[in-house]
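Anyone have tokens for PPM-type phosphatase domain-containing protein? Sequence:
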Amino acid sequence: MSRFTRAQSPTVPKAAGLSPARRERALLAADLQDLSWRRRAAPAVLALLLVVFADLVTGRESYLAPLMVVVPSLAALTLRPLELLMVCAVGFGALIGLGHYDQVADLNNGQFLFGAVVSYVVLSAFSAWVARIRMRRAAAFAAVSSVAEAAQRALLRPPGPAVGPLRLAVRYASAADAARIGGDLYSVLETPHGTRVLVGDVRGKGLGAVQTAAVVLGAFREAAYDESGLLAVAARVEASVERHVPDGEFTTALFAEVRRPGAVELLHFGHVPPIMVALDGTVTVLEASDPWVPLGLGRMAAGEPQSMETAFGSEDVLVLCTDGVIEARHHRSGEFYPLAERVGPLVREAARSAAELEVAVGRLYADLLEHTGGELGDDALLLLISRTDL
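Reply: yep, here.
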């Protein structure tokens, strides 16, 4: 009867949301307002100076002052309305000054100066309106981005640096456009049956992937406490995916369980195989002899998945990741990131403390970004695990 007992729904802690300061930083970054006003004004001021310089160099025989209309146009891209009007006022003074320098007002064609002035004033006012609209849209975009980040935090509920006998260090990056939300998922739970870990990768990105990730994580968090065996946990998650996820959608997953000292049980569902790194940096790729199909495709396979057990000592580091890591391409050659070749020197000796494990995942993530040139084309998750119970 215990499995049918309805647990009280946990409330999302305030930390899962975003503080006003973080929302403000999101807005500033979305609209380049985190830069100083001098840097944001630089394009418009540079255009102003170039027009003045060109007009002075070409002499009174040419009248280039009407080109000053580019100033409000450029200012509308980066400046706030009041800042824009200040820069445009300087441009207006330069426009009048160049008109007198070129003696346009003294000629019968003085209407050229009048036309340039009217055009400049109208365009300046219109550009100020455009800047205001731009800032409103940036605010709305920042709000959406902030909500997405808060949703991701509430969904993943990142564990602390230690869960049961395990130390953890994680790096998560979403490839969804400025949303910090994607289809990679992970969870580490201390249960009566041992410490259980799930790492998964939902097919696709965006909201649909997040919905599938919510189904997988919700099922895992319930089953991990109810079921005594890892195979039964996976079966519960598979059943939930089949019920609540559209046909054709699937999730690669890796289940792990640490129940007794010196060993870890692994269950592969079409996921990237984990890597064990020894104290001296020796790397062992933990390939499954008979990996199972991804979650959501179980009805298409005959038989049952089989788990494997491998040694996991106090000096070892278990490296889990998603395919966004191993399929990250080099920014010039296009080669995939060679995780198995690079991880040993970057992670060795990291099992000695939580601080060293955190430093190691930072080194590994930095190496991944260096490989790709600073950008990732897919969601990427790196999870490093060591143990303290030996």
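Residues 20-149 form one domain.
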